[in-house]
Write a structure and sequence with these properties.
This protein has 110 residues and is mainly alpha-helical. It has four helices and no strands. The longest helix is centred in the middle third of the chain and has 28 residues.
């Protein structure tokens, strides 16, 4: 569970680091880059321990960690895109998410 919580928190931070500036076109690119790097540093402070804990505890394999991270990333981005960017959720986004759920199923098969 700590792995999932840390990966979720890191993905929230990384989503902001990558996309917050899309609604701030007046901000200079160099400022956006520096701010995003600053946020990314703290994101890595969560993501690296998440992967290390998940792997060294024997709970997850590296491919499982990667697929979990991708599912969390898409879920976090979907919420961010709707709430912050004002995007609408479309059927093809849901279809892509369903494909990732399929990937989760297959990566966890024994």
């Amino acid at each position: 569970m700590p792995t999932i919580l840390l990966l979720t928190a890191s993905n929230v931070m990384m989503t902001f680091a990558w996309y917050w500036h899309l609604k701030q076109p007046q901000t200079a690119l160099w400022k956006v880059i520096l701010i995003s790097w600053g946020v990314a540093f703290f994101e890595y402070c969560l993501a690296v321990p998440a992967n290390r804990i998940g792997y060294l505890s024997g709970a997850f394999t590296p491919p499982q960690l990667k697929i979990i991270q991708e599912v969390i990333t898409l879920a976090v981005f979907a919420v961010f895109a709707i709430l912050y960017l004002g995007e609408t959720l479309r059927w093809n986004y849901l279809a892509a998410f369903a494909c990732l759920i399929g990937a989760v199923y297959f990566i966890f098969m024994k």
